[in-house]
């Protein structure tokens, strides 16, 4: 099969066989998949052969063996150099039957593919067009965290390893490397531990330490070695061709000087520059054209023309001189050397764009101190299991997320998560986060996560996903790049034809070839392909370093169009840590001691006698501990803490119910329905005044009768007023949307500078989402909330920003997560997004101006005025074009550190 007509003919022939329900033919893979009911495979084979095609049955599967389970896989793609390569890989992957979507990252050398087919078919499709492909990870599309990975070395065959591992509960898959010398077990650390997994596979495989390497390291080594090999021969060629060694040019038919030039240029052209030619040849076999096509074609034409000139001179033709032939051989060698140097510098610069991500990844320690039976031993990070007791000494990094279990006090630097270099106090029961550093004191912790379920692993996954997905502007550029190379090839042919038609002599004809070579060399689709991903790479890594996680690169584009900002109150404008400041048992609500509460000796809140006030506080606390026991709202946590401080016991309760935005309720035997939430009736004047001062007032009702009132104050974040002011200066229309009462909401709004008419109070989660939807009809909306009651509103907004701690990095509703819990981080992210888009547009402007100005000059339009560019200069300019784009992106990181 060679074209779409062939695939159509094969499909029609197969579908015409009685019993065939469907037939799908893949031109790229030279393969057909047929669904049938009891048809003999020989008949299918004959149907294909009857219309003139060769056919062979590869395998026959029973219906129950196949699976339509949607999978998401990460594939390593080697050999990509420009946007045209990205397009070629995407088209090849999307042509595989069962592939739903594919996102290819040029900078990460990574492809994220969603598919129902086999991963091996995707790898084969990538390799069939001349690129290196390898499956890295594979997981079900519906799963949140990607499975953890355990590197192993098979002791038996790969098939036996797969069979043994698949029989173990918790194993999600096995990825075996091509040479079968190593593999990775994909597993769920909640269901099976890493060390337990190795014990069950004893004799089948062993733990294998994988050395992490920068993805560009191998490319850099290859480019460096080929460049070193090409420099000396190229210098010798220049010296010989430019006449600096006249003794090598005698009067013989074939002087030794020319032989040296020819042999050395052949070495540089076909050995040092082989990577260009092999990649171009593989792309050409499948109808694709890339940057390598232009490089290979231009240097090969130059070399062959020089070789032709030498042969004609030997044969006695007066049309060619050895000087002209040497010049073209020199051009070929110099171009290869200059392009190798440019590509090496470009690869080195691109590796710096991932430096921030590698810096985050380096926070993961290689070893941890494992305590087993009161003995301490060293265990690798990959082998940590849930429930392990790990010792952390002062100055060491916390290996995984966990809980402190010793009666000790320590301070941890969690700037990796929050972006704030401040030591956080840790004691028994405190949660510690993997990747943080114990700056003072040591402790023993219990591992609560392992592998890819840790906070640090989730951060890296989010960063990687954001860098892999391409924004809309990049997709448009990739479409342009897919036509760029064919247009350049056509332009080179047109240039040659125009100048050849005007040629009066051999010198003019040579000039036409030089112009065509210059056009091929100066064209640079790489600068188009690198303009967006390098900027996104730097920006995403920089944002993560400051505690801002971007889940989708489309956000960078959207941020510039936002006009409205809707802010939640609790945990966004305020600190999200309310405290009880006033409590009152209402008249008629008796605090019966028979109810069972036991008061603590701590001083109670109230104005009555000490004993009476303690008894009333204990009664309220006794009920609150019961009714708020299942709620996760910040107010519920504050109420529980106060209740525990005044009462040692908790009421027996049942039938818990939670009404978002209204409160919680339960039933207490002997008292009936107990409810805690928004007051249902009018409040006394004293309590209305507390609301006007910014306090939140909640009511405790028993048997549908008011029982008590409690006031909680949540202090404003120190940066909230300045952040709102910055939003106003940035042109945002700022709204406050909260579930609190109007008096409280207006009091907070006035303190931070939000207009009274832009305050929405007493809003349920549905009302918040409706407000966002209404505002979105007029302008794009930015919604900022704590990710709990604001989930619907976050999902409805153009850009949803969740403010929370590092433990909330899996918030599905938001597109951006600010782990530092500071509203000021939003302003930093806004500034970074504007700078990122400016950098992208600046990169595009340079790439466009370079190509649209360089191509006409290379084609010789300025020749009548003495303006034309030699091929060697064009090659250097092309290499500098890509390098300038990458350097421009790196400057983004330097300016925002």
Keywords:
Alpha-Beta Plaits, seven-stranded mixed β-sheet, six-stranded antiparallel β-sheet, copper ion binding, metal-binding, 897 residues, ATP hydrolysis activity, 28 helices, alpha+beta, 46% helix, single chain, Calcium-transporting ATPase, cytoplasmic domain N, HMA domain-containing protein, Rossmann fold
The low-confidence parts are: 591-595, 601-607, 806-810
Reading side by side through the largest sheet, how are the strands ordered?
Answer: 20-32-31-30-21-28-29
Distance between the termini: 55 Å
CATH topology of the domain at 579-713: Calcium-transporting ATPase, cytoplasmic domain N
Which CATH architecture of the domain at 579-713 would you pick? 3-Layer(aba) Sandwich
The shape, in one word, is: elongated
Q: Report the sheet with the most strands, covering strand number, pairing sense and barrel closure.
A: 7 strands, mixed
Summary of the model, kept short:
GO terms for molecular function: ATP binding; ATP hydrolysis activity; copper ion binding; P-type divalent copper transporter activity. The chain is α+β, with helices and mostly antiparallel strands and 897 residues long.
């Amino acid at each position: 099969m060679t074209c779409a007509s062939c695939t159509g003919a094969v499909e029609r022939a197969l579908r015409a066989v009685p019993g065939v329900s469907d037939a799908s033919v893949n031109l790229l893979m030279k393969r057909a998949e047929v669904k049938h009911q009891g048809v003999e495979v020989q008949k299918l084979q004959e149907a294909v052969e009857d219309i003139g095609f060769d056919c062979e049955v590869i395998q026959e599967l029973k219906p129950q063996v196949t699976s339509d389970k949607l999978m998401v896989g990460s594939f390593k793609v080697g050999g990509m150099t420009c946007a045209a390569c990205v397009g070629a890989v995407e088209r090849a992957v999307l042509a595989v039957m069962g592939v739903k979507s594919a996102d290819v990252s040029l900078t990460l050398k990574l492809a994220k593919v969603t598919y129902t087919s086999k991963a091996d078919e995707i790898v084969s499709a990538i390799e069939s067009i001349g690129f290196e492909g390898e499956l890295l990870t594979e997981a079900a599309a519906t799963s949140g965290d990607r499975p953890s990975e355990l590197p192993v070395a098979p002791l038996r065959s790969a098939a036996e390893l797969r069979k043994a591992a698949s029989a173990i509960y918790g194993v999600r898959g096995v990825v075996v490397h091509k040479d079968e010398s190593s593999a990775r077990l994909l597993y769920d650390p909640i269901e099976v531990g890493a060390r337990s997994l190795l014990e069950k596979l004893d004799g089948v495989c062993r733990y294998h330490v994988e050395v992490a390497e920068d993805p560009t390291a191998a490319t850099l080594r290859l480019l460096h070695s080929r460049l070193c090999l090409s420099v000396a021969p190229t210098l010798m060629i220049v010296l010989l061709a430019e006449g600096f060694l006249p003794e090598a040019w005698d009067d013989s038919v074939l002087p030794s000087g020319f032989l040296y030039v020819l042999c050395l240029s052949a070495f540089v052209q076909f050995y040092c520059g082989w990577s260009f030619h092999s990649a171009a040849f593989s792309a050409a076999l499948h109808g694709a054209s890339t940057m390598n096509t232009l490089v290979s074609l231009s240097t090969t034409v130059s070399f062959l023309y020089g070789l032709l000139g030498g042969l004609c001179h030997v044969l006695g033709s007066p049309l060619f001189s050895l000087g002209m032939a040497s010049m073209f051989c020199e051009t070929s060698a110099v171009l290869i050397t200059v392009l190798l140097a440019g590509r090496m510098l470009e690869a080195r610069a691109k590796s710096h764009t991932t430096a921030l991500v590698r810096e985050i990844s380096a926070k993961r320690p290689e070893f941890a101190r494992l305590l087993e039976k009161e003995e301490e031993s060293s265990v690798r990070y990959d082998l940590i299991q849930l429930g392990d007791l790990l010792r952390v000494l002062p100055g060491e990094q916390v290996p995984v997320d966990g809980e402190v279990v010793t009666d000790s006090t320590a301070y941890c630097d969690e700037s990796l998560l929050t972006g704030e270099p401040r030591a956080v106090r840790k004691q028994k029961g405190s949660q510690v986060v993997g990747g943080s550093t114990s700056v003072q004191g040591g402790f023993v912790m219990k591992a609560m996560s392992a592998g890819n379920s840790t906070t640090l692993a989730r951060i890296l996954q989010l960063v990687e996903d954001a860098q892999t997905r391409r924004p809309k502007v990049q997709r448009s550029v990739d479409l342009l790049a897919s036509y760029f190379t064919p247009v350049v090839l056509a332009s080179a042919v047109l240039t040659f034809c125009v100048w050849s038609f005007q040629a009066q002599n051999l010198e003019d004809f040579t000039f036409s070839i030089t112009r065509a070579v210059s056009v091929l060399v100066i064209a640079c689709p790489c600068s188009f392909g690198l303009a967006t991903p390098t900027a996104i790479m730097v920006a995403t890594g920089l944002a993560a370093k400051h505690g801002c996680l971007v889940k989708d690169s489309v956000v960078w584009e959207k941020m510039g169009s936002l006009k409205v900002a809707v802010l939640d109150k609790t945990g966004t404008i305020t600190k999200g840590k309310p405290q009880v400041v006033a409590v009152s048992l209402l008249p008629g609500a008796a605090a019966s001691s028979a109810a069972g509460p036991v008061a603590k000796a701590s001083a109670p809140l109230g104005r009555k006698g000490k004993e009476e006030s303690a008894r009333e506080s204990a009664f309220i606390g006794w009920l609150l501990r019961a009714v708020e026991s299942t709620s996760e709202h910040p107010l519920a946590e504050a109420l529980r803490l106060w209740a525990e401080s005044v009462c040692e016991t908790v009421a027996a309760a049942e039938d818990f119910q939670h009404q978002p935005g209204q409160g919680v309720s339960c039933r207490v035997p002997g008292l009936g329905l107990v409810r805690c939430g928004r007051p249902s009736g009018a409040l006394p004047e004293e309590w209305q005044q507390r609301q006007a001062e910014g306090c939140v007032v909640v009511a405790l009702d028993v048997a549908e009768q008011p029982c008590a009132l409690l006031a909680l104050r949540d202090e404003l974040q120190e940066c909230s007023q300045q952040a709102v002011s910055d939003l106003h200066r940035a042109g945002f229309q700022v709204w406050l949307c909260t579930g609190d009462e109007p008096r409280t909401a207006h009091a907070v709004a006035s303190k931070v500078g939000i207009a009274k008419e832009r305050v929405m109070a007493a809003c349920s989660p549905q009302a918040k989402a409706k407000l966002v939807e209404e505002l979105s009809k007029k302008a794009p909306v930015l919604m900022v909330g704590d990710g709990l009651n604001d989930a619907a509103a976050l999902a409805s907004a153009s850009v949803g920003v969740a403010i929370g701690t590092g433990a909330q990095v899996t918030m599905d509703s938001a597109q951006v997560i600010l782990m530092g819990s500071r509203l000021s981080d939003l302003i930093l992210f806004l500034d970074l997004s504007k700078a990122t888009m400016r950098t992208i547009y600046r990169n595009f402007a340079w790439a466009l101006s370079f190509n649209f100005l360089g191509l006409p000059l290379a084609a010789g339009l300025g020749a009548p005025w003495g303006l034309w560019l030699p091929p060697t200069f064009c090659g250097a300019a092309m290499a500098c074009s890509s390098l300038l784009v990458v350097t421009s992106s790196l400057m983004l990181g330097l300016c925002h550190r």
